[in-house]
Amino acid sequence: MTEQATPASPVEADIEIYGALVDKVPSRPPRSQWIDVWQQFRKHKGAVFGGGFLLFITLAVIFGPFLWDVDPKALDIRNKNWRPIYQLLFDSEAQAGWAHPFGTDQLGRDIMAQMIAGGQVSMAVGWLAMALALLIGSAIGVISGYFKKLDFWLMRFTDLVLSLPILPLTLLAVTLFRQPLNARFGPEGGMFILIVGIIGLTSWMQTARIVRGDILALKEREFILAARSIGTRSSKIIRVHLLPNVISPIMVSATLGLATAIITESALSFLGVGFPSDFPTWGKLLSDAVSRMQEFPERVLLPGIAISLTVLSVNYLGDGLRDALDPRLRGR
Amino acid sequence: MLTFTIRRLLLSIPTLLFISMVIFLLLQLAPGDPMAQVPLTVPPEVKQKMREALGLGQPIYVQYYKWLIQFFWVEPQVFLDWATRETFLLGWLPDTNFSTFIDPDSGAVRPVQRIISWQTRSPVMDIVVQRMPQTLWVVGLSYIVGILIAIPIGVYSAYRHYSLFDQAGTFVTMVGFSIPPFFTGPLLIVVFSVTLGWLPSIYDTTHVVTDWASFKVQFFQMIMPVMVLALQTTAQISRYMRGAMLDNLNQDYVRTARAKGLKETSVVLVHVLRNSMIPVVTVIALGMPAIFGGAIITENVFKVNGIGQLLLTALFANDLPMVMTLTFIFAILIVLFNLIADVLYGLLDPRIRYD
């Protein structure tokens, strides 16, 4: 072997040869995808407002009871039918005051405390039902996209469930299964489990379809072939390589799911098949107030506005997320 | 196309069977007892007899089979009999007698067993037929009104993309999407019936239109329920319309049409609109069942005694045959409109071929 004159270090030699090609500016670390997403998201004003409002209302119902520690179920029959505080602006004779900013109902219960308590239930139902629907939807979507044998049957099943009449069936299930669940978990707990379960079980289909479509496309890509060729097990391919890549459609359908879940819960309460009557949720407060809306329109307006604003903000958030997570739209 | 339609029709049979089975099993699993309202003084063995008279003593599959027979075989026969007896369309045919049979024991002519409501003890279908027109009027009209409002909004906001009108339109459709009908309903009632007193808050279904004055009453009482339902439709369809128009406005054929000197109105309203209508027509067909579901709530708000309200009262009264039949009618609507959407899509877009 002949001795070769080795350069002092390979780096120096490279600099000599490729010097002209090196950037003048020191190279920055690669930008994370999520920074891009965040910057695109920030451009969508409605989405930022929506996300902010959703955060606000979630925090408000979680920490509200600590700041406004009036018992929502405490009866105070002497101070019944107070008007909300803004009524004093038009009518100085009105029975209103800072003791009950939103007024009191026909039994003297504080409406502000009821709104906070109702919001807790509505938001909890919304978040949990959405999480359940996402879990089922992603699982079915991933399995049917990844395993060819199961695809046909799972998708036929999804189509079948999609053609079920959802609202009538939900009404049916809630009315029919109320008794046994109430007996086991108590009237509030039983209803909570029932409503979350039913909304979750009837709203996973869109997620499953979208996730399946994405998985089918991803499965044919080279990195999956590479992972498989080094002997990665299917479960790990799904967990490590596929799931992180379908996170954006899942997030978008999560926002839609949250909105639907909140509306469905309120609709059930409104139709009188939801939670028991002294248990406040936004839908329940609204439906209880409808019979007296001529004298006390604010009792319809307040929960109605709370539901509508929450759903509106969630929809805007979803709109913004869809734009931000779509790489084709990003940077425009 | 014909083979596709026939294949889809055949495929919808197992779908409907599956759905009916789901509904039936759900009702079977339910702990509700139709005898719960019977006074406690009635002895248990009599109650058991009453249960058997309702057909509850049989095994589940027999009950299911009988329901299927009654729904798919007996009810069409009754309908045919009625059609050849009373309607103008088929009345010239000789009267048929499918729905009666001769009792082998006594030799008397007796009507066949139909699906009987536990509430009223009358055939379920008769009640459904009574209630259907109210729902169809309100729902159908609201859908037409919604589409008529939505399409111009969608077209214009796509044509003036990112203009003030587009931004406002997007906001309004988002709001319409988000406000649930059980809030818009009471809100409209408070504003227009209670405060302003312009419109009645309750839909009077016994009202008969005979002259101009009664037509005006009918018109005024329909405004609010129709508009509440139409708001949802408008929000959804104008979104789709806008998206489809935006996709098409940048296509090459639009540039060609402009280049050969066509007027802008005919480019947009003939070339682009017609092509954009393809996906929108599908959405319109697919949204039809959902609007029937939404009608359950709206009917409850405005006290319209349509099929949605019928379903609710039947649920509360534990009237299982009625609930089963109504839910299944909703399912048929969904399957039917899915089929219509698919077929329409293939008919309108010659590029789509189902083979």
Protein described:
- The complex is a heterodimer of chains A (332) and B (355).
- Chain A is mainly α and 332 residues long.
- Chain A has 13 helices and no strands.
- Chain A has helices spanning 10-18, 33-43, 45-67, 87-90, 111-146, 148-162, 166-202, 205-219, 222-229, 234-242, 247-270, 282-290, 297-325.
- The N and C termini of chain A lie far apart (60 Å).
- Chain B is an all-alpha fold and 355 residues long.
- Chain B contains 11 helices and 2 strands.
- Chain B has helices spanning 2-29, 44-53, 60-86, 124-159, 164-178, 181-195, 212-249, 252-259, 264-302, 307-316, 320-348; strands at 100-102, 109-111.
- In chain B, strand 1 and strand 2 (109-111) form a beta hairpin.
- The radius of gyration of chain B is 25 Å and the shape is globular.
- The chains are: A mainly alpha (332), B mainly alpha (355).
- The A-B interface holds A 46, 159-160, 163-169, 171-173, 175-177, 179-180, 259, 263, 266-267, 270-273, 283, 286-287, 290, 293-294, 297, 300-301, 304, 307-308, 311-312, 315-316, 319 and B 15, 18-19, 22-23, 26-27, 29-32, 171, 174-175, 177-180, 182-183, 186-187, 189-190, 194, 289, 293-294, 296-297, 300-301, 311-312, 315-316, 323, 326-327, 330-331, 333-335, 338.
